[in-house]
Fold these 3 entries.
Entry 1:
Amino acid sequence: MAELSVRSVLVTGANRGLGLGLVQHFLRMPKPPQWIFAGCRDPKGQRAQELQNLASKHPNIIIIPLEVADPSSIKAAATKVGEHLGGSGLNLLINNAGIARPKSIDTETLETMNEVYTTNTVGPLLMGQAFLPLLKKAAQGCPGSGLSCSKAAIINMSSYAGSIEDMYVWEYGQVVSYRCSKAALNMLSKCQSLAYKEHGILCVVLHPGWVQTDMGGAGSFKPPLTVDDSVQGMLKVLSSISEKETGTFLDWEGKVIPW
């Protein structure tokens, strides 16, 4: 299996859960990235303490203030990342930040739909737009015509809950706004894969599994997967995918999920 080898990676929502797990696992790689950009809403806040501790020990972690529901915050983050990278590009953009509101079809509101959709769907769209120049630069700096995560890629963290064909764990929670936002994210990812292929950028949607995080474990049922298991699996998948997989919906073990 090819080893994932990236010079630079940006993870959104990096202060906890899967985002923090990804940062930790990138650090443990045989050849860690030169730059690990960790985006989070409130870098100085209590919820970012663990990330701050990690960054104080590892100079290759750069914490970036980033609210993916705010276009001006995204633009500022892209500028900051570009300054750190100098003349080189960004290899890997992982749109991990996401929110869920536990509402049923009867209690769903305009406000919740807007809030969840803005973070989970519009955020990754705007991130792709803002970081496209840096991703293109990374792709141009890698020889060869194929696509890979070591070259340039956008990874959108979706969920099996966004599969229309297979209404995953409906009996455990309707979470309508979340499901709709992830189904829309899946379509966005397909659009990105078609639009950005000519620039040498791979785009896939990943379902991390049902993971024991603040968000995944909010209900009464304990999710089956640990953050470590999920992240290890996802990084293995990212190391092996190529242009054949661009525009596909995969889970943390590399299995194709129905749209």
Entry 2:
Amino acid sequence: MVKQVALIHAWMLLLALCLQLGAAAAGKLPLSDSAQDGGGSGGDTISHSLTLVQRLEALLLQGNGSDVSLRVETPSADEVKMIQAHSLVLSLQSPVFEEMLLSRNSSTLVLKESSDCAAVFDKFIRYLYCGEISVRLDQATPLHKLATKYQVLGLQQGITQYMTQNLAQESPSGHVASWYEYALQAGDVTLRDSCLQYLAWNLSSVLQSGEWVTISSQLLMSLLQRSDLVLQSEMELFAALEAWIIQNEPDGLTAENALRAVRYAMMPPRELFRLQTQSSVLARYQESVRDLLYMSYQFHSSSPMHMAKYFDVNCSLFMPRNYLSPVWGSPWIISNPTRDDRSTSFQTQLGPSGHDASKRVTWNALFSPRWLPLSMRPMYTETGAMQPTRVEGGRPRIIITPATSSADFAGVNFQKTVLVMAQQQGKVVVKHVYNFHQSTEENGDFLAEADLYHRTSEYLIDSSLFLHIVVKPLYQTLITTKN
């Protein structure tokens, strides 16, 4: 009996040593200075940590020295999985396992898991032994559930990072919306916000996928209320919403709230008329949006200056989103973006009102890859000698100005938006959205983290920087005339 206890203690010490060295090999835990130099200065490092990790994995697979059995059951009991494990490893890696092992009354722990979690439980346990794991898109959510349930924080954070970095990955039925719903339920704010931002900034591609009609009503409303949606036009959004309503048949209040979030004033009058005569969904709920349609027709039939005397034109109904239509902006592909300054010109419609439909504004855009802020420019003394200043290089900047001033601009502010594309998993996605009135200098962080120098950078596609400039006319409310 004493010999058996001593053997168990020896296994426990070996497991602790292997676990520490294994984590170091996986980049999870740095070796101490004494371990690096052999306890003295000037020594060389001899590392067999990878071998130890392999032996630790073999220990798990073979079950040698196991002192606890994990019985993984699903709610329907149609699947049972038995895993031979070691209490020390489980306790060191998970406070939940530690508490369960202290209060157990047998050598078997019965664990109730959902079917998707049970399917990846072997992977989860292997991570506890080896400090590494391979993940597929369909395995991310159940692994995150297990890491959260058993409080394995390193794995939980690692899976969250994996998910935020793989939002653009192609999948048969889509995964971003389901990840958003899971993050909302799990309280993972980082993952929730990353999913919502990706969906908003790449909405055109999402609307064309099979995932769109499966999203929840809560996520639908979260998207419809945003002004930073990137899509072709408001008509594209209405068509997608109509398909969602037909597919999901929501209750009347949900459908009405969704339809009232559409910005009908951003549609040309002829499109509004077509919707009223041809859309079955709009015909069914027309009474709930009649006031919005009426205001939209008024908006298109009168000048914005006149409209602003009687209505709050700063409300969302009259505020454009980030439309990719040529009417509101232009793509700009900048080859070799670190080489020198570039410029381009394009035209947009003066405003979304039908009153301005025939009016165009010409814009000049200047891109400077190494512009220096005033605080970083060389300073001169009274004698003309240059004073030393900060030596950091310049940073990218874009300036967008109208080619000519016009009285037609009265009552209109122009917000400029630059969409910055990146290539992720072979797919071009919107990586950043910058809003400003004249220059990206107003942001202070324009392309601050972008690598524009290496061909392998995700910000470069065929050595070029892909941008899309959107000009958003925002009307100003004047003094309201009271009846």
Entry 3:
Amino acid sequence: MAGVRFHSALVTGANRGIGLGLVRHLLALPNPPEWVFATCRDPKGQRAQELQKLASKHPNLVTVPLEVTDPASIKAAAASVGERLKGSGLNLLINNAGIVRANKLDNETLKDMAEVYTTNTIAPLLISQAFLPLLKKAAQGSTGSGMSCSKAAIVNMSSTGGSISSFSGWDIMEVASYRCSKAALNMLTRCQSMGYREHGILCVAFHPGWVQTDMGSSAGHTPPVTVDASVGGMLKVLSKLSEKDSGSFLDWEGNVVAW
């Protein structure tokens, strides 16, 4: 990790779980980003107290209100981040915010399917579009050749639940809406890798592991992977990615996950 340098990074869904873990680990890097932008619905609210504590200790941490399903909120967040960066661009965008509805297949509804798909698939699309000018600016301003997460990258937090080949965990959680949304997110990642290749922006999808978070524990089981292990692993993998990895679906240990 000593060689990686993210000048700026933005994490969605940063008030708890993997998002909060990412913020903590980014701030603790030997060479931390000049700016870490942590977004959530209400950065000043009760559910963001840990984030508030971090912000009080780290002047390079900026909390940004963002409702990922609201285009106006996305636009405002991008404008706010752009003002803070003052022309330097955004190096790393991590689309981490996501939801799950613990339904069985027979109980899935139009409302739940639409809500999960909007949050887990459409929101990363819209957020990436909104921050694209800042990502382009970072890529153009980089002195390095090729692609890297230090230059400009979009990381979409996916899941093996969206892998059509492996199809893991059905006996634990059916969650068809979640699985469909993550399979679609994987395709979005591939599309972004093709569409943004000419701009030098690396795009990857990550399976963070079955992690000990509120979402990971929602089926009543204790997941095997801690937040620290997952986040530390993902950042280590991110530090080594290059253009050959753009469009990949990887896990937190760097293994390729089957589509």
